[in-house]
Amino acid sequence: MAAAKIAPSMLSSDFANLASEAERMVRLGADWLHMDIMDGHFVPNLTIGAPVIQSLRKHTKAYLDCHLMVTNPSDYVEPFGKAGASGFTFHIEVARDNWQDLIQSIKSKGMRPGVSLRPGTPVEEVFPLVEAENPVELVLVMTVEPGFGGQKFMPEMMDKVRTLRKKYPSLDIEVDGGLGPSTIDVAAAAGANCIVAGSSIFGAADPGAVISVLRKSVEGSQNKN
Ligand code: DX5
Ligand code: ZN
């Protein structure tokens, strides 16, 4: 069974105090730190790049779960590997022709490869990447249109999660966008085990309690199956 991983989205943290925000999240029970990399092209927003990952890496040993919302993911593999990224998740919409090479190079730089899909992209598109000889190790199902934190969870994306969980019982299946105490139960029941949450954690009076609610929901659903 794929273990529960709770990944606060640092996009909702205080970027001016990234090191202490990272330390705070780990202390409050985060398993991974989710880093949203946006290039102002694949999505309208522009966030952070490899230099920031490199700076943060000097302050934390945490697993840095990098989600690359960029048009040319292959350009970023080497810099992110050098910077100390742990996971490198690219979007299938921009890697239809070169995902095999991309997975290979991500692994060769010591990172864990993942693939993400936008809400409008059919789940079937990622099957070949999970079934490849050199496969991705995580599938990130977007539950909002990528680009910004604080959007509304799209429950209709749970069909994708259910399909993936049925086919791949031990795959890391991550959900991202609009997750929090009021939406976690449907995502957990569908089979998601990696939970990204930005505004619901950073906006809470007690972020540690939210992390633990998310974890309990995932673990509770897994125990039922
Ligand atoms: C959206 C990002 C998310 C975002 C989630 O493009 O990929 O990681 O920060 O934020 P919330 O949890 O606020 O929807
Ligand atoms: Zn993300």
TrEMBL record:
Binding of substrate, residues: 9, 67, 147-150, 178, 198-199
Top-level division of the source organism's lineage: Eukaryota
Cofactor(s) listed in the protein's UniProt record: Co(2+); Zn(2+); Mn(2+); a divalent metal cation
Keyword Coiled coil set for record: no
Catalytic activity: D-ribulose 5-phosphate = D-xylulose 5-phosphate
EC number: 5.1.3.1
Cofactor annotation comment: Binds 1 divalent metal cation per subunit.
InterPro entries: Aldolase_TIM (IPR013785), Ribul_P_3_epim (IPR026019), Ribul_P_3_epim-like (IPR000056), RibuloseP-bd_barrel (IPR011060)
Keyword Methyltransferase part of the UniProt annotation: no
Keywords: Carbohydrate metabolism, Cobalt, Isomerase, Manganese, Metal-binding, Zinc
Gene Ontology terms for molecular function: D-ribulose-phosphate 3-epimerase activity; metal ion binding
Positions annotated to bind a divalent metal cation: 34, 36, 67, 176
Active site per the UniProt annotation: 36 (proton acceptor), 176 (proton donor)
Biological-process GO terms, alphabetical: carbohydrate metabolic process; pentose-phosphate shunt
Family: Belongs to the ribulose-phosphate 3-epimerase family.
Protein name: Ribulose-phosphate 3-epimerase
Protein's organism: Miscanthus lutarioriparius
